[in-house]
Amino acid sequence: MYRLIALFALLLTVHPVMATEAGWALLRDGGQVVLLNSAATNGTSEPANFDIEVCSTQRNLSARGRQQAKRIGALIFARAAPVEEVVTSSHCRSRDTGFLAFGDEDIEIWPALNNSEPESAAAEENVAAIKERIDAYSGSGNLFLITQEQVIQALTGARVRDGEALILSRGAEQLSVAARIRFN
């Protein structure tokens, strides 16, 4: 009985590592589209006075999140994953994740990656625009789209942790997740 419990515990701890290594292998080959959830923040919901143009009215990266974003970039470059494009939502936490991870060179801010009211016309338009961009991507490096969990879930149905990356499998009618990389 103890052996069975130990085997089950081992499987639970090994699985994320295997998923992460599969993700790194895909990224090293390039040509991938990656949805990256912004790094850890200082809260769980937007303040009542939220304004997309004013960072002080938003949920921003925590000290842990700032370190996590730097670690994301360091690991991507250390693992020789080619970066072709980095695109973020207008949310300050996504922009800061991008700038801290990839530097300020050529980061595009794209409002289609912003959170929208779920099941609204704006959300549907944003999801359609993002899917179109994902399907059209044909670069030799990797495309990183930095956004929030709500957007990632609308695109893939998958839940993500702070700073987690989903490498997408494209070509089918529905986007699916080929691999995950967890930057804890």
TrEMBL record:
Residues 1-19 form the signal peptide. Keywords: Signal. SUPFAM superfamilies: Phosphoglycerate mutase-like. Gene3D superfamilies: Phosphoglycerate mutase-like. InterPro entries: His_PPase_superfam. It comes from the Bacteria. This is Phosphoglycerate mutase. It comes from Nitratireductor basaltis.
